[in-house]
Design brief:
two-stranded antiparallel sheet, globular, single chain, 5 helices, 269 residues, eight-stranded antiparallel β-sheet, alpha+beta
Length: 269
Amino acid sequence: MPIHLRVLAAMLLLSGPYLAGCSPEAPHATVQGEQLTCSRPMVTTRYVVTGLRVPTREDVTAGELLGVDVDGVDDACGSPDYEGSVDNLLIDIAAALPSLMPSDPFYFNAAIEAGLFCNSTEPGCASVRYEVAIERCGEVARLQLSRSGTTLGADIVELDGDGRFDARFELLSLDLPVLFQGAHTIQAMNLRRARVSGVVSEGALEELVIGGANRYEDYLPLVYCDPAICDPGGPIDALFDVMLDPGDASCGGISVGFVATAVMLSGDD
């Protein structure tokens, strides 16, 4: 028996809310190492770092972002962590640097600003640009950090409901450009057990933090340091606050942390 047109119309009207409520199947992500494939076409969003600095003691007092937990060990080797188990001895090192050369004090954050965001016409300006690229498949993403077009590392991350991510790397060689005593130079920053965390928001990456630890052999002070202090076995050993290798009874790394800002790039950038 043919269905009456009025009955068909009523059936469609009643089923409308259910049809409208149907949502397409979520994309399926496949992960192989650092590679991500998706059951749907993926879009890559790129962000350029527009600010990078060492947190300050004022940030500590104000309860601001300070870095990441590098080793998962609270107060390793008698060195107290910051709130939230954050390891970042660079806060204290940066605060102490000006007193080491009172006649020509060195301010780390000012040196980063002048070195990283220098005018390309300045003699010696490295014109370095750090970028974060995020390729998403639903709530799974491949995050890649690069320095002037060279990939520093990539990791597959899960994004929570707020867009928060936490990428981890065995090694990130930042090679940070700084201005020291009027000359542009590169400060080696070979961050082991590195982490890059933040939140994907509209047009930017918020709460962006980069952290890790330097081994002694990677630690190259910007200012002269008396070998009696800085050679292994000397007082500098007391600075090591990170257990880099599982099962270590001693600390082999100095924790480092930066807070950053990054904005979305357009297709033409």
